[in-house]
């Protein structure tokens, strides 16, 4: 199973898949975790957005990264 980590507790991990479905997994059942080599964002997303939309996306992603901390 792969997806974006949307929540984590001491006992569970919640992932969202590419269809937006959330999957809650017991940490005791997870054998291994590893980052994906490729982003889940479409390769040509910049070409599909206007300049303003793209700048808004970059600002949003930057804010998410900053909120996550080091």
Give the amount of beta strand, in percent: 15-25%
The spatial strand order of the largest sheet comes to 1-2-3
Residue share in helix: 25-40%
Largest β-sheet summary? 3 strands, antiparallel
| SS field, number of helical segments | 2
Q: Radius of gyration from the CA trace?
A: 15 Å
What oligomeric state best describes the polypeptide chains here? single chain
Series of secondary-structure elements, N-terminal to C-terminal: EEEHH
Shape: elongated
Structural category is alpha+beta
Q: Tell me the total number of β-strands.
A: 3
Mean pLDDT: 87
Q: For the record, give the distance between the C-alpha atoms at the N and C termini, rounded to a whole number.
A: 26 Å
Low-pLDDT runs: none
Give the topology.
Elements: E1 4-8, E2 12-16, E3 22-26, H1 45-48, H2 51-68
Antiparallel strand pairs: 1-2, 2-3
Q: What does this entry look like structurally?
A:
This protein has 2 helices and 3 strands, in the order βββαα. It is α+β, with helices and mostly antiparallel strands and 70 residues long. A hairpin with a 3-residue loop joins strand 1 and strand 2 (12-16). The two termini are 26 Å apart. A 3-stranded antiparallel beta sheet has the order 1-2-3, with no helix packed on it. The longest helix has 18 residues, at 51-68. It has helices at residues 45-48, 51-68, and strands at residues 4-8, 12-16, 22-26.
